[in-house]
Design goal:
The structure is a homotetramer. Chain A is α/β, with parallel strands linked by helices. Chain A has 14 helices and ten strands. Chains A, B, C, D: Keywords: Isomerase, Manganese, Metal-binding.
Amino acid sequence: MGAHIAIKQRLLAQQIETPSWAYGNSGTRFKVFAQPGVPRTVEEKIDDAAQVHAHTGIAPSVALHIPWDKVEDYGKLAKYAESAGIRLGTINANVFQDDDYKLGSVTNPDPRVRRKALDHLLECVDIMDATGSRDLKLWFSDGTNYPGQDDIRERQDRLAEALDAVYARLGANQRMLLEYKLFEPAFYTTDVPDWGTAYAHCLRLGEKAKVCVDTGHHAPGTNIEFIVAFLLREGKLGAFDFNSRFYADDDLMVGAADPFQLFRIMYEVVRGGGYEREAGIAFMLDQCHNIEAKIPGQIRSVCNVQEATAKALLVDREALAEAQLSGDVIAANDVFMDAYSTDVRPILAELREEMGIDPDPVAAYRRSGYQDRINAERVGGNQAGWGA
Amino acid sequence: MGAHIAIKQRLLAQQIETPSWAYGNSGTRFKVFAQPGVPRTVEEKIDDAAQVHAHTGIAPSVALHIPWDKVEDYGKLAKYAESAGIRLGTINANVFQDDDYKLGSVTNPDPRVRRKALDHLLECVDIMDATGSRDLKLWFSDGTNYPGQDDIRERQDRLAEALDAVYARLGANQRMLLEYKLFEPAFYTTDVPDWGTAYAHCLRLGEKAKVCVDTGHHAPGTNIEFIVAFLLREGKLGAFDFNSRFYADDDLMVGAADPFQLFRIMYEVVRGGGYEREAGIAFMLDQCHNIEAKIPGQIRSVCNVQEATAKALLVDREALAEAQLSGDVIAANDVFMDAYSTDVRPILAELREEMGIDPDPVAAYRRSGYQDRINAERVGGNQAGWGA
Amino acid sequence: MGAHIAIKQRLLAQQIETPSWAYGNSGTRFKVFAQPGVPRTVEEKIDDAAQVHAHTGIAPSVALHIPWDKVEDYGKLAKYAESAGIRLGTINANVFQDDDYKLGSVTNPDPRVRRKALDHLLECVDIMDATGSRDLKLWFSDGTNYPGQDDIRERQDRLAEALDAVYARLGANQRMLLEYKLFEPAFYTTDVPDWGTAYAHCLRLGEKAKVCVDTGHHAPGTNIEFIVAFLLREGKLGAFDFNSRFYADDDLMVGAADPFQLFRIMYEVVRGGGYEREAGIAFMLDQCHNIEAKIPGQIRSVCNVQEATAKALLVDREALAEAQLSGDVIAANDVFMDAYSTDVRPILAELREEMGIDPDPVAAYRRSGYQDRINAERVGGNQAGWGA
Amino acid sequence: MGAHIAIKQRLLAQQIETPSWAYGNSGTRFKVFAQPGVPRTVEEKIDDAAQVHAHTGIAPSVALHIPWDKVEDYGKLAKYAESAGIRLGTINANVFQDDDYKLGSVTNPDPRVRRKALDHLLECVDIMDATGSRDLKLWFSDGTNYPGQDDIRERQDRLAEALDAVYARLGANQRMLLEYKLFEPAFYTTDVPDWGTAYAHCLRLGEKAKVCVDTGHHAPGTNIEFIVAFLLREGKLGAFDFNSRFYADDDLMVGAADPFQLFRIMYEVVRGGGYEREAGIAFMLDQCHNIEAKIPGQIRSVCNVQEATAKALLVDREALAEAQLSGDVIAANDVFMDAYSTDVRPILAELREEMGIDPDPVAAYRRSGYQDRINAERVGGNQAGWGA
């Protein structure tokens, strides 16, 4: 019982950022299915993100994607967010959608295109200055589709050059989060394909450069919690982009495909000190609600991370350490599984009631009438999407 | 030397169909990069396909995709193709792009949507009657993204019902090709995910239903040539959709990612009797030239299949059988690799010269001025694409 | 509450068979780590299996592996098992360990070796007559390591011939379970690599031939519950070999790597009617306890299947169907996840108490003193293992 | 023609080391098939390795595995090798076969076991002093099978401690090669699972620590040549363990499963300066000839690396760079594929004749009578194997 109180206390400190693009339309190369009520403006995205926070209590910020969320006045946007009850978070750069980027952005063989991409990245830091964002998230779709198409090593040189320039531009309290991804949209080589590549670049760059782990960006069979533990040990874990997948980068609701994996990841976060606020780890969602309702999808995802965290906090670490040191494989696994097998939903319901929110966030959202209202109001205009 | 003459003789019989959609724009969910000179009409796609045939001599037909290639008068379209030097081939149904298909087409829980999808499939058979096409290719993107989203088994019942109705509509000389695919765009379940599922349905349907093997639609580690050999043994291999991939369904130029695999597949085709015209196997390309030039991409792909076929025909099957029966693993592998290691390009150059075409099809196309002409002429209008 | 009573009622009917070889030593190609107390004889294996049944109440039979469990008098062995409180179950053939099988058993290019392998299979049916076993489980390690090594199709012909002969020998109440496996120990081709191959052979053979699904034998990304649902629909699912894996055929305790997957599989079993006794599905474990204690490993595994089954039975199928038919993706997933998130251990504890066994089987086994006793008694002799 | 002469000149410099254990028996967990003529002693392994060198001319050294190749007097062994025409190469440590290592060697929770493992590693450096070997190859099978079994991070701490101690013991001209592997024999976590982990440890250790890339140790879909290019750029590529695989760590003859991949790897080696002698890259085979003849298997493998190297040297790098910089994807791929499609066997035959050896090494070995002689002579005694 005392354990439950301590766990609730620690869960109060959790903050999960939702991405503005999760509220817009998304899909696969085969089809983007539009949904009713989808935002047409950044402000409407912020309104939706604020709903997620209102019903979960632990999603107080929203990540922006430039240029999808480009506005004239970011200070005004920050105030808008504040009035909605949340704040602006991480700035995500986009160097994959201009026609110029067909063969790459910062690694493009053409110096003109590289310069253009770099200018966009630097512009993103300008925006961070205006929004007060701490983190710049860099995902490069750069790579090649065919053997011989470009020089693997020169592309690394070009990448390093761009990262250096961006790093030099960062302010004292700003950070760069470098994301890696196995494949897609490039199919043969990807210029930052794995954590090792991101780590090596961040190490060279310095303290303000950290690795971002997207849970859907690994080869089959990869042990993601190992990477989390390793990066924490090296002081180089900067952020999570949470989502789940069965095969490739499916971008499903986090925890939907393998809730046990999410628990194992959160356990390593807790065990490695990454759950402490001072560790500075950014916990973000990065998902596509292609066929399911978007706001409930975000709420469910935030709750899934919270459930996994609660279970991770429940692990009896003393008993675990004892079983581990004694070499009793089954006993150690039992201690670990005991936490996972526990139904933590009653604890979370209690926690929410203490926070003054409904114990069942998805149900509360459905009852709130918000979805009906936006379905009715958001007619006409251009629905937000990836603009691909 | 005599062997080379025999091989050239057999290569003369080869026919590879190119897909109309390979000439239009395509991309990933992140971006479709438009290319100059891309067709705006079906007729322009046919013109491009005719170029591929003109330079390779073995691509005499083009597959259509409905509704992308929908026209008023298919008889007129067939005549247009004929005058361009090729003919209309397989009809590809499309039940994945209407907003109604968000949760499936023929397996949708909603009977109204199922009926709509079935009507489209039946319409495709009408079109086959008009074009004189032999084959209807069915690929269903149907599936689910989340556990519990729909009932796996009921979806099979619905699928079976639709297939029955289409099969019943087929004419005496018409066939149904059922394609399977591991994942994408559905991420959790796919209703026809593997050859076993397609095979079981085709077996129930009867002689006119055959399995289509798309070389990019398998789980990692799957031995595709085994499937080819097995389906040929069962009399259920109907067609190939050729392309290549490194990780998922990359739809790269066939032979680009693993030329040795393509050789092994073509060897099983030859060995299992699938290369004979009477086997009725349709050899088709199904690719996306996202970043490379489209017509040269198709020409290169046709040549890659031809090279793999030439090597497959080169295998000294007597020596191979002898080594196999003697249990000499290295000797058997040596016989097999000897064919693969051979540079067959001189044989193919000879063959082309005997056919009256340039020995280097890609170079000849580049020299022809066709690309410059279409780049200049095809301005304005709507470039063909997937319309996703 | 009424639901819980009904679930307990249905759980009472569950029977899971443990494999005799799980009690012996096992390992990887790198090392077999011997454990204390490992059985030296078939009778000692039966004693250990009886322990698993004593503590779980739902493991009343033990599978035998021939020749590892070969004895002079199977009637006597059956009586021995009976006196220990369990019965003899499935007979597992072994055609992979004789030096003659280097290049295959029933698919070997050498007819002498094929005859020898077939004779062993027929001998196994003789043993079934003596033990009263219903099922013959056939796993063929046959395959090739190198392209060209042998003829893929001829190997299928040889396989079919052997299966025909064994099928013809089966008694009226006997069945053949054909197992498939992606790879290992053969690396290039495997002669029964996937469910489709096993299914096609079983279909040809007839009613007594069924497919055995080993949960560790699939390519990455394969949806196993789809296969389960499909085979149940076709009436061709015969058995499970349960275990779990992270990457290849790890043979870990079932449910250890992905408990959510095990739940999804058991849901499809229940939904497809496979849980009913008359469906005749054999639920078996097939695992290797390389580093963990073997008897507790089996007990834990039986409990894991039971937990997954309890959760599967908990799914509110009416609510699920309603959400599915309404196309509410999140609601349907919620119903499904609600059952999974439930901690069913209290229900199982109640059930066990009603069955007169300890609510915590692993703890009860540890307290029983059995392990200490066998560690002390089983000294000298040859510990059971795979004899590889 | 001049190009061919230059390529032959560069090929003369190539040296590939064969592993002593490739000449002994090996297999899978299911069965080790013994072969006639297999060595019983280290000296006989050296004799076999000398055969590979005699017939290929480019395999002048043999790697040792301790304790499999433990002898009293390494100076005498070195002289034996010299008299056989080869030299002793890399020392491979073995900390995976003692019963104590069930839960790990240098990462074991038990400090006594860690000490024992470390002592073995230090002993290996002693042996290097005696043999004059430059390189110590470290592969750790350490890891866990079950979530919770041990603490991922503490295992890294223990690993780092052991590596530090070994590194400190290295002589001025000695190096440590740290190998990584995704999985097997550990199934849940592996303590050095990927290049990033090996790289981070080597970076911390210093100049004498380098990463060893085993071509069979990656997750599906991993781009190995990218890793090669990246490690070369960082100055951290130390060695290759060549073999090939279709699915897991199959340890087949290198180039057998994907010859195009081997070419791409060798291209990055050449392009990144790794082919120059002063780069210090060790090119080694690490394979298991489970079913094929061992000495011909090694010869074939050496030739496969040589063929891939010849093709890599054939790439017209000027034309490639031009096509790459112009952004012509198909032209760049064409230049690359032109080298791969070339049949380099005639060049290699010429090279061998110039070196005074038979143009067809496998055939020459078969004709030599060596195999018949060892089959006859090597009777009795204990055949070498892994001793698992």
